[in-house]
Amino acid sequence: MKFRSKRPANLCGKLIVSCQALDGSPFRNSESMARFAQAAVQGGAEGIRANGAEDVRAIKQVVEVPIIGIWKAEQDDGKILITPSVEAAQKLVEAGASVVAIDCTARGQKYGALDRLRRIQRELEVPVFADIATLEEAVQAAQTGADAVLSTMRGYTPETQHVQGFEPSFIAQLVEAVDVPVIAEGHIQTAAEVRAALAAGACAVIVGTAITRPEIITRQFAAAFDEWRRSRNPHRTVIGIDIGGTNTKSGLVNSRGEMLSHVITPTPWNEGRAALLKHLERCVAVCQEVARDRGIEAEAIGLATAGWVDPNSGEVVYATENLPGWTGANPAAYLREAFGLPVAIENDANALAVAEKYFGAAKNATDFVCITLGTGVGGGCYIAGGLNRGRHFFANALGHIPIVPDGAPCTCGKSGCLEAYANAAALLRYAAPGKFTACEEIVAAANAGNPTAAGAVNTLAKYLGMGCTAIIDLLDPEMLIVAGGLAQDNALLIRSLTQELGKRVTVWHKRHLQVQATTLGYWAGLLGAAAVASAGVDGECAAVEASTTRVPDATLAVGPR
Ligand SMILES: [Zn+2]
Asked: Cα of 412 to ligand 1 centre, how many Å?
């Protein structure tokens, strides 16, 4: 691959180390940056990325490898912009930078990045690299004449804030989309990720924080001690809140999964976002009062909610009209602000899977599925020891696995979904309307031998078996745990479901799949919320911490590498 400008930077096929320190770091001086650069080159780096003319000059004096110069400066919107002027670029080049990188994101372009890119190339005769966050930005920069595109800003712009880690697939897409070299930068923490970047077609890779920020590296090790200390404390108590479309369960739960208090209150489901947040605040306040009375201190808050949730930001990404106004709410941030405690949040079905892992039947399992049968049908899956959330937090929509072409209408707007055939309404339908008024009655009668009720449970089990077969064939779990109101005291359902699976799942006899009802009981939702809090404290789930800056804008202000 060739760079277009007159003076090629010779950076292809090379490891570039970004040597930057934040204000407040003991390394925030040019001499330290020069030493970092020297050490990086000794270790095999063949390029350096550095911020500001002073650092570039100091680094240039001690290493001979090419330097990508950037100039971070705060703009009138209060956020940092990378190399906002031709003058800044000129100072970088005079100091010894052989390449200049500029912010070519949508925001950067608003500040005239593409125009500046051409001017820097023309007037300073150096290659210009474009720091971008999306494919569209990369294409625009490449078409303008950027000499390379860098994935630096991915995860640091409002449009890409859902990206929390390195994405080799994005690098591959960039390589497809532009005809200039692609350099992988941002969120690269390990040698394995460097290999993945190269395999995806990156022509060079820039690593920063993982090499040149000792305080962040140390924090990762220190965190292991925090987790260890917490896990040794058997008296740890958390607050769990499970907010559903009808009721909210809340209470105090200790690290053994013992409920120290539990209450159930109606959810003000149709009163909008503000009322829902206030409601949660009251639930926490009640728990704290109970805790105070007993001389306990709750360490964290766990929230399980209907809807799809981004556990990193704490936002409800999408909720149905069961909770109007809930989409876009950030209950985790709200509660953190109100109580100053770490708050961890999960989708309620995911939370039940976490509860099974922490307190229930799946303590020793690495691969299991927990399916919940109630008003809706939901699920949570652990794959290879970790909770499966999916890239956009929409995973495990087990209720919407299609099982009947053009079948019964579903709450999702489609038809023929598992949910429409395996929820409470379906069970009532199967039991002949009028004969029974509640699912509990049907379940009790079925298990006592009533043929109509048993027939209804068997019909539900047949459809459930169809849906679960798809899940089992896909994930090959070791356990299938059935939870929710319909699984309560319903041995017949488990027997009937197991039979159905035996008929449908491929190589059933080799799987030894354990099918069972949850042992967590009526308060499973509360235990799920508490487990999410515990998992947050243990670092296994993202906790929206009281003290850290996970808010994307704050990250942007701190600056990408
Ligand atoms: Zn559906």
From this structure: 4
453 near 436, Cβ under 8 Å? Answer: yes
Strand residues in 5-119 grouped as ranges (E): 15-19, 47-51, 67-70, 72-74, 80-82, 99-103
Q: Ligand 1 centre and the CA of 406: distance in Å? A: 12
3 state DSSP class of 10: coil
- Residues with Cβ within 8 Å of residue 504, at least 6 apart in sequence: 465, 466, 469
405 CA distance to ligand 1 centroid (A)? Answer: 12
| Rounded distance between C-alpha atoms, residue 116 and residue 141, angstroms | 11
Assessment of whether the complete model's pTM goes beyond 0.85: no
In this structure, the number of other CB atoms found within 10 A of the CB of residue 316 comes to 27
The amino acid at 547? S
Q: Output the CA 414–ligand 1 centroid distance in Å.
A: 5
DSSP strands (E only) in 95-246 = 99-103, 128-131, 148-150, 182-185, 204-207, 237-243
- CA 306 to ligand 1 centroid distance, Å: 15
What's the CA-to-centroid distance between 360 and ligand 1, angstroms? Answer: 28
Residues 364-421 pLDDT 10s: 899 999 999 988 898 999 999 889 988 888 888 899 999 999 999 998 889 999 999 9
Measure the CA–CA gap between 220 and 190, rounded to whole angstroms: 13
CA of 398 to the centre of ligand 1 (A): 9
Q: How far is the CA of 424 from the centre of ligand 1 (A)?
A: 15
Among 10, 87, 92, 17, smallest CA distance to 57 is for 92
Please, which residues have CB within 8 angstroms of residue 339's CB and are 6 or more apart in sequence? 284, 288, 301
